[in-house]
Amino acid sequence: MITRELQLVRRPQGRLEVDDLRVAEVEVPALRDGQVLVRTSHHSVDAAIRIRMGETTPAGYLPPLALGAGLEGTAVGEVLESRAEGFGPGDLVQHARGYREIAVVDAGAALGGAGRLTRLDPTLAPPEVWVGLLGGTGLTAWAGLLLVCEVRPEDVVWVSAAAGAVGSVVAQLALARGCRVIGSAGSPAKLEYLQQDLGLHQVFNHRDGVGPALDRAAPDGIDVYFDSVGGDHLEAAIDHLRPFGRVALCGSISGYDGGIAAGPRNLFLATAKNLTLRGFRAGAFADRAAEAVSELADLWRAGRMDLRTDVYDGLEHAPQAMVDLFAGRNVGKVVVRT
């Protein structure tokens, strides 16, 4: 059997380019005990994949992708054949062998604890919701805000990259928990989405200067910062956090795609103000995924979770989807559908 997969053929020099990737035909391996064969329909496009395209990756992270090898990512699809207990043909599943139209998946495989082969309930939500809100995207937002930051109703919460996949879920979760929510993004259209569609209390364009904008949006300071950007955003947050403030260090996208995310110059303020800064990855909270799915699904079905999904049809459009993601052209979740 032949399938198509997305491969890395050139390590990006600076910003990712479409020609750094290719779609190639490959032979599907024979199925072995403990494996399932999946036809994947929805592939999650996540910024963190860019980290693995370099020669090396940070200590403790996933290894670099090999040139000429298929990419990996969380995805949702239908089981075609199974030699793994608990899975059968027709099952809707989540797995970590995305960027392949047909994938052989080990029942115990995962990406850093995320994306483990899991049966999904198709009556609860369709695949495009499972691959985002009810998948790794939602777990990242839920765990970061509720478990890492232990958000409280009276908190003032700032969410960076708030119009993105994770950020938009964080912002809406914080609103649902009774917080005052500030969101930042990089275009007028995204700010309009955050304020008019999501109902955030304050929004600002980070391109206008993060520190001064945060002065205006939160003159009395903030209690929680959800960081997906790093660099000047993290430095501004440390300046504006009130005593015993909390930071969820989810990502540092300002340094992923050829940029440099400089470390904060004001780190001693974390000591002076008794701040808590905690890095985390969603896979560390995989044992709490059912709780996240329950709360997020309830909010979505109640109409309290707006989902924006930018869908690229066909694996051949996955390279452009990634380039667009890093260029900030999308609102909400980016998905490749095959």
List keywords for this structure.
338 residues; single chain; Quinone Oxidoreductase, Chain A, domain 1; alpha/beta; Rossmann fold
**Based on the structure given, which CATH architecture of the largest domain is correct?**
Alpha-Beta Complex
Q: What's the N-to-C terminus distance? A: 17 Å
* Helix content, binned percent: 10-25%
Highest-level CATH class of the largest domain: Alpha Beta
Strand content: 25-35%
Class based on secondary structure composition and strand pairing: alpha/beta
In DSSP terms (H or I, runs of 4 or more residues), the helix count works out at 9
Give the mean pLDDT.
95
Query: What does the main sheet amount to?
Result: 7 strands, mixed
CATH topology of the largest domain: Quinone Oxidoreductase, Chain A, domain 1
Number of β-strand runs: 15
Spans of 5+ residues with little confidence (pLDDT < 50)?
none
In quaternary terms, these chains amount to single chain
Global geometry = globular
| Helix and strand sequence | EEEEEEEHHEHEHEHEHEHEHEHE
Count of the domains: 2
Radius of gyration, whole Å? 20 Å
> What name goes with the CATH superfamily of the largest domain?
Medium-chain alcohol dehydrogenases, catalytic domain
Describe this structure in words.
The chain is α/β, with parallel strands linked by helices and 338 residues long. The chain has two domains: 2-132 and 308-337, Quinone Oxidoreductase, Chain A, domain 1; 136-283, 3-Layer(aba) Sandwich (Rossmann fold). Helix content is 25%, strand content 25%. It has helices spanning 127-130, 136-148, 165-176, 188-197, 210-217, 231-240, 268-272, 289-301, 318-326, and strands at residues 2-8, 21-27, 35-44, 75-82, 92-95, 102-106, 118-119, 156-159, 180-185, 202-205, 222-227, 241-249, 276-279, 309-313, 333-337. The strands form three sheets. Strands 3, 4, 5, 6, 7, 14 and 15 form a seven-stranded mixed beta sheet that branches. Helix 2 (136-148) packs across helix 8 (289-301) and helix 5 runs parallel beside helix 6 (231-240). InterPro entries: ADH-like_C, ADH_N_2, ER, GroES-like_sf, MDR_fam, NAD(P)-bd_dom_sf. This is Zinc-binding dehydrogenase. It holds the Pfam family ADH_zinc_N. Keywords: Oxidoreductase.
